[in-house]
Amino acid sequence: MSNWKIKLSLFLNYFVFAILLNSVGTVILQVQSNYGVSESSASVLEAFKDLSIAAVSFLVASFIVRIGYKNAMLLALAIVTVACLAMPSLGSFAMTKVLFAATGTSFALIKVSVYATIGIVTSDKKEHASFMNFIESFFMIGILTGYFIFSAFVDDTQAQSTSWLQVYYLLAALTAVAFVLLFSTKLDETSIKPADSKPFLEDFADMIKLAIKPLVLVFIMSAFTYVLIEQSIMSWLPTFNSKVLSLPTTLSIQMASILAASTALGRFSAGIVLRKIHWFLVLIICLLAAATLVVVAIPLAKAAQGQPVTGWSTAPLGAFIFPLIGLFIAPIYPAINSVILSTLPARQHGPMSGLIVIFSALGGTTGSIITGHIFEAYGGETAFYFSLVPIGILLICLFLFNRFQKKSEAKVEFTATGGH
C-alpha cells in the first residue's frame, strides 16, 4: 500500500486521541470519588478539553502550514506524552484539568494536520473519501477500546483507590510509540506550501463574514445543539450508570461503550441510507426516535433501582436501552457538516471548518456543564430527561436549515443558468 507508514501513523494518532478525549466521562466519575469533587465542579473538565480544541484550532489555522503538518503532530504527541506521565505522580483535580487542556490543545494540532495530510497521501477523491471514513471509524474503535482499558485499571473494592491513574503510563507508552513512528516516517509537504499565507486578521475576518450569513448561522446553531446533546450524554453516562442504576464502577464504564458502539453503527448505516433518502427526512426521523427512546428508557432505569448488579448479565434493561440513543443521533453531525460544506464554494471550506470545530467544542462544553449542574441539583434522571429540550430545539434548527439550504441551492442554480 502506498504511503502505508504515514497512514499507519495517522491511524495510531487518531486511536490514541480517541481514548484520551472520550475518557472525560470516566474521569468525571473517578474524580468525584477520589478528590471529593461535586458533579457541577467535575463538569468543567469538558470545558478544559473543548475550549482548548476551539481556541487552538482557530489560532493554528493561519500558520500551521508554516510549521508543517508533521512537526505539528510531533509537537502534539510530545505534549500529551509528558502530560500522561505527569498524571499518576501529580494526581489531583488540578492536574486532571491540565491533562485535558493539554489533550484538547494537542488534538487541535492533530485534527487539522491529519485532515490536511490525508490530501497528501491519497491520489484521488475516492481514495480520499475512503481513507477519511477509515480514519473516523478507527476513532470510534479507539473510544470503544478506551472504556475497557480504563475499566481494567479501576478497583471496585475501594472507592478511594487511585489505581486507575496507572492507565496513563500505558497511554504515555502509546503516544511515545506514535511519536517514534511518525518521526521515522517521511512526509513530503512541498505540494501544500503556499507562496504566502494570509495574516491572522484576514483569516478571522473571513470567518466573521461567513458566520453572519443566515444559512451558516442556522447551521452553527444546529451543530452547537447537536454536540451539546451528544457530549452531555457521553460525558455523564458512566456517572448515570453508577449513581442512578447502582452499577459497580468498572461495569458503569464498560457499559458506556454501548453508546460508542451504537454511534459507530448509526454512522455506518446512515452512510448507506443517505445515498437513497434525503438527509432532512432521515435526520427528522432520527431525532423523533431519539426523543422516544429517552421517554421509554429512563422509566425503565428508574424501575430497576435498588436491584443488585454484579455484571452484564444482571444489569437492568435501561442500561442497555438508553445508550442506543447513539444509533439515532449519530447520523446528524456528519450529515449537516456535509450539507453545509457542499453548499458553500470550495474557497470557504477552510473558514467553515474552523467554525465547525469552534462551535462544536463550545456545544460540548455547554452540554456537559449544564448536565453536571442538573445532575447535582435534581438527580441523574432529570439530567437525562433534559436532553429532550435540545432535541426539540434541534428539530426547529433543522427545519430552518433545510429551508435556507434549498434557497441557497436555488440561488446558485439561478445564477448558473444566467437568471433564466
Mean of pLDDT: 81
- By CATH reckoning, the class of the largest domain would read Mainly Alpha
Spatial gap, N to C terminus: 49 Å
Biggest beta-sheet profile: none
Fraction of residues in helices? over 70%
Looking at this protein, list some descriptive labels.
420 residues; globular; 2 domains; mainly alpha; single chain; 20 helices; Growth Hormone, Chain: A
Written account of the structure:
The protein is 78% helix and 0% strand. The protein is mainly α and 420 residues long. It is globular.
What layout of secondary structure does this protein have?
Blueprint lengths: L3 H18 L2 H11 L4 H4 L1 H18 L2 H4 L1 H21 L3 H29 L3 H28 L14 H17 L16 H12 L2 H30 L5 H7 L1 H17 L5 H25 L13 H5 L3 H5 L2 H12 L5 H30 L1 H6 L2 H29 L4
Helix pairs in contact: 1-7, 1-8, 1-9, 2-11, 4-7, 4-18, 6-7, 6-9, 8-12, 8-13, 10-18, 11-12, 11-17, 11-18, 11-20, 14-20
Q: Quick recap of the structure?
A:
With 420 residues, this protein is mainly α. 78% of the residues lie in helices and 0% in strands.
